[in-house]
Amino acid sequence: MTGAFHSTRPGAVCRSRRSLIVLIFSSLLAQAFFPPASLRADETVSPVLSAAGDPQVPPAAELSAGDAIILGVVEGITEFLPVSSTGHLIIASHALGLESDAPLLAADGRPLWASEPSAKNPAGEPLTLKLAADAYTVIIQAGAIAAVMLLYWRQLLSMLAGLLGRDAAGLRLLRNIILAVFPAASLGLAMHKLKLDERLFSIEAVVIALVLGALLMLAAERWRRGRLPEAHATASAARRDLSELTVRQSLGIGLMQCLALWPGTSRSMVTMVGGYFCGLSPARAAEFSFLVGLPTLGGAALLKGVSTGPAMIAVFGWPHVILGIVAAGVSAALAVRFLVSYLGRHGLGVFAIYRVILALVLVGWFLV
């Protein structure tokens, strides 16, 4: 199957058109996931929804257009590079002053809730700037999803044709993606219900994951280069179609993705390393990580949008959500194009070094 990066080299006009398409599609996808709060306004809904939906009520906290763009760009670039989006978003949120745990109030003095009081949780969970920012960075992943869908539309159409019985290779690719998503998705849902993911998170945990991930990448790169002394082996790995992965190999990549549930590990990194061990070239391993990321990121964005999206919009306002999604979409498209091109020539080594540098920055900024 031919990826989006093996077509003829586009000119400046073509790149501009693609960027425009990403902008438009990102906005459409955002509205599909999270319709504007003004469409939800109703006197009978909760205070959070009313605050989000009333155009006369200003956002509960300030998020400038520049902040929205910064968060969108950081999310879009780091989501698909094997460098840990979590570590970068920690730094960005801290630098932008989005870490306050003080409860937020609407303009009319009503409390805003991340989880409203209920029989099971009488105290509820007050909405804070930090919680809203965390939800924001997950929801704007919709832009990154749109970018990959546009760049890899041929593969998506092939999988759809496979479901209709018209493309055997597309059906095998869909099978491989499902197998690669299932283990981490199942474990992630279980951890979310038990709130284990929240307990795992800390700056120390992210630093450890960054360093161990760097060591894993260097080991995988050394292993790959040791197995490719012959030009024939390199060419064979580069030509291997993603639909040729076996059930066992796809499931193995899925099991490796479970490591990414530890904050700071990087989903794309473990997927690429798993692809290495299955005989994929660096570029092909990256492309598989992009496709596997579609249901993973889409599910996370949808769940967060349903659970916290309205409250987050009440805090930041709908225009800045759209702006962040668009920024994430454009930056993700550029990052994906760069990564496939770079990996084809150099491999993962430089990203391992970068992860160690990022770990040192986190230690110096937060732990010293």
UniProtKB/TrEMBL annotation:
It is an enzyme of class 3 (hydrolase). InterPro entries: UppP (IPR003824). It is found in: Cell membrane. It comes from Termitidicoccus mucosus. This is Undecaprenyl-diphosphatase. Its main location: membrane. PANTHER family: UNDECAPRENYL-DIPHOSPHATASE. HAMAP family: Undec_diphosphatase. Keywords: Antibiotic resistance, Cell membrane, Cell shape, Cell wall biogenesis/degradation, Hydrolase, Membrane, Peptidoglycan synthesis, Transmembrane, Transmembrane helix. It comes from the Bacteria. The chain crosses the membrane at residues 135-153, 173-194, 200-220, 288-306, 318-340, 347-367. Belongs to the UppP family. GO terms for cellular component: plasma membrane.
